[in-house]
Amino acid sequence: MKKLSKMFMALTFVGALLAGCGSNSAAPAPAGQSTEQPSTPAPDANQNNSGSTQTNSGEPVTAVGSTALQPLVEQTAKDFMAKNQGVQIQVQGGGSGTGLSQVASGAATIGNSDIFAEEKQGIPAGELVDHKVAVVGMAAAVSPKVKVDNLTKQQLIDIFTGKITNWKEVGGDDMKITLVNRPKSSGTRATFHKFALDGKEEAEGITEDSSGTVRKIISETPGAIGYLALSYFNDSVKALKLDGVEATPENIATNKYPVWAYEHMYTKGEATGNAKAFLEFILSDEVQKKTVTELGFLPITDMKVERDAEGKVTQK
Amino acid sequence: MLTRSKRQFTENITGKTVAMVCAGLLVIVVLSITYFIASKGLSTFFVNGVSISEFLTQLKWDPEGEPARYGVFPFILGSFLVTALAALIAAPLGIGAAIFMTEIFPGFGKKVLKPVIELLVGIPSVVYGYVGLTLLVPFIREQFDVLGFSLLAGGLVLALMILPTITSVATDAIEAVPQDLRNASLALGATRWQTIWNVVLHSSLPGCLTAVVLGMARAFGEALAVQMVIGNTTKLPGSLLDPISTLTSGITLNMGNTIQGTPYNNALWSMALLLLVMSFVFIMILRLLGRKRVVK
Lengths: 316, 296
What we know:
Function (chain B): Part of the binding-protein-dependent transport system for phosphate; probably responsible for the translocation of the substrate across the membrane.
Oligomer: heterodimer
Number of strands of chain A: 14
Mean pLDDT of chain A: 81
Organism (chain B): Brevibacillus brevis
Keywords (chain B): Cell membrane, Membrane, Phosphate transport, Transmembrane, Transmembrane helix, Transport
Membrane topology (chain B): Multi-pass membrane protein
Subcellular location (chain B): Cell membrane
Radius of gyration of chain A: 24 Å
Distance between the termini of chain B: 47 Å
Structural class of chain B: mainly alpha
């Protein structure tokens, strides 16, 4: 009995300890409260000349989410921090879903996403403010060994739904077609599914969770076909034309080539302080004309059309 | 005298408290993890209204479709198949190696093989996966003219991964067989092989089984190494050379892109709960085997 009661005492003690920890750490200061944190250098003192808006270096900004957008945000954050000393911008991956849910819960300042918040179940899209920072095109990718350069949309749909299983049916060599998919929850897959396959359900293929792996598999497997964002294409894989239209920036800007997506950076409510300055920096000509293009994205400013969450396209 | 016993007394008390706090912490962590996963995982059935039998037996997995389908049977089957395949390959090899190290060539075994195998235990699973992806998958692709990503690749990578675990645990079990038994067997005129087969292996059987089950538990829960080489297709495999999915790969592929609290996310938690239940089952088997383990 004595032992048992001691045990209980120990348990309650530990429990109380844990509860204490819990309540302390449960509130990781979201953007609004972080002014209380000690900021390293004095604000205002480090205002650099070059085009940066009013920043106060006290608020660290966290941008979490889409791995497709991550390289662009990382590069831009580096440039931004070089210009505005003392400002902290942390960029993390985790996927579009993570980005959206983190920004909605206030755990991250900016949520990066390949898809509209309205398209994701369970996100209070009304509370989030959309900042479209770039456009990315996507294309069907095959190994250079496949002797096909162009597919009609119907052929593409037939391939991905499993109706066509050999390249010779679409004018190529006698080679088995192997599908390489991204997971059902992936933003790239959602875009390709909607705009290239007209929402037809893909047949089961092998599934890989990163664009890098998909590219590796397509380049190594004869007859493999998958889809990649244009920023992922290199010499090891070949992009197919769709209905004779190549996925060039010009064709995407006019929606002649329809498989593209916005890269979104969501904030909860209007952006303020450093987050606002950072978003303005990404949308500045300096970044749009240089970093965005260099990394394989299209400047948002070049787009001649606009598309809403339902996929309706209007001329700008 | 008095001060010394007083000091001993306080030392005793502090020691006891520290130990008890540690034990208590462990109990709380285990209970809260179980509670958390169970509450998340069960909400698929009680909040989202998916029937448990559909979840466990249906073949179609499409949580974002219209209507959403939550059949995880292909994942479950995949997990069991790779685990079984890995155990089938690794168990004879591991136990064979253990016999070699203890009965046939003990000097070399103890000095060289054992440390090497202990090193193997420490290799991170992602390394096994990467090696599998780079060497094994292209090899299978060229040998059999298939995709390469397959049940076979997954089973082989896992077999390699659990082989050291099985070998080292089986070695300990075989070493624990009293020397008297061997001597008695040899004195009765049994050959060395007869002794190994009938006496040593027989009396260390529960220990060897423990080794295999431990390896299977590790294989069942492995995510990264498997995910890299099995192709992750949610379809029933027709042969050893077809790609498959496992519960773990299903979770890791989708968790980053689903939103907390949605049915999709909850379904992933249910898969996690299933993994947890399975690991409890493995542990129960181990405890049952442990009871029989005493050699008489």
